[in-house]
């Protein structure tokens, strides 16, 4: 079961120059086209409808990353479900690889409030925490 991480806690991680996305943590944005309206720095985009098909690819590439954070727009449905699906597939892989696998130490989390909460919290105060933001398209949502 995935736990939740607050926007402030994730912002500390993202803003820490000693932490490298894809090595020390990974943010998986499971939104569809709205990913291109703006996203968290370093996030990879895997739409929720593809997560079951691409979870193995994520595990192969990022299985050694100690913390994976999933989110969607609000982290009420797609984000938590994607985290659950990823966790289930990672558990199956862990049963094959055994307790020495890096997956045994991986923490799976969901960003509380999703990208909407993240943007509300940081867009004006710390704009460097929102990449490729398109205000006109955001307002049209």
From TrEMBL:
UniProt superkingdom: Eukaryota
Entry-linked PROSITE patterns: RHODANESE_1 (PS00380), RHODANESE_3 (PS50206)
Entry GO MF terms: protein tyrosine phosphatase activity; thiosulfate-cyanide sulfurtransferase activity
Keyword field: Hydrolase
Listed name of the protein: Cdc25 phosphatase Ibp1
Originating gene: ibp1
Transmembrane segments: none
Documented EC number(s): 3.1.3.48
Alphabetized InterPro entries for the sequence: Rhodanese-like_dom, Rhodanese-like_dom_sf, Thiosulphate_STrfase_CS
UniProt keyword Hydrolase present: yes
GO annotation, cellular component aspect: cytoplasm; nucleus
Enzyme class: hydrolase
Rhodanese domain boundaries: 21-127
Hydrolase in keyword set: yes
Organism listed in the record: Coemansia biformis
Pfam families, per the entry: Rhodanese (PF00581)
């Amino acid at each position: 079961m995935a736990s939740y991480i607050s926007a402030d806690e994730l912002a500390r991680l993202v803003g820490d120059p000693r932490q490298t996305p894809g090595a020390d943590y990974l943010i998986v944005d499971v939104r569809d086209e709205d990913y291109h309206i703006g996203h968290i720095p370093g996030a990879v985009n895997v739409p929720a409808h593809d997560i079951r098909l691409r979870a193995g690819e994520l595990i192969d590439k990022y299985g050694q990353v100690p913390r994976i954070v999933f989110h969607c727009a609000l982290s009420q449905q797609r984000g938590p479900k994607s985290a659950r699906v990823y966790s289930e597939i990672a558990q199956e892989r862990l049963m094959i690889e055994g307790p020495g696998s890096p997956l045994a130490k991986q923490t799976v989390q969901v960003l509380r409030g999703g990208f909407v909460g993240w943007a509300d919290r940081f867009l004006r105060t710390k704009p460097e925490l929102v990449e490729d933001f398109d205000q006109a398209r955001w307002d049209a949502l």
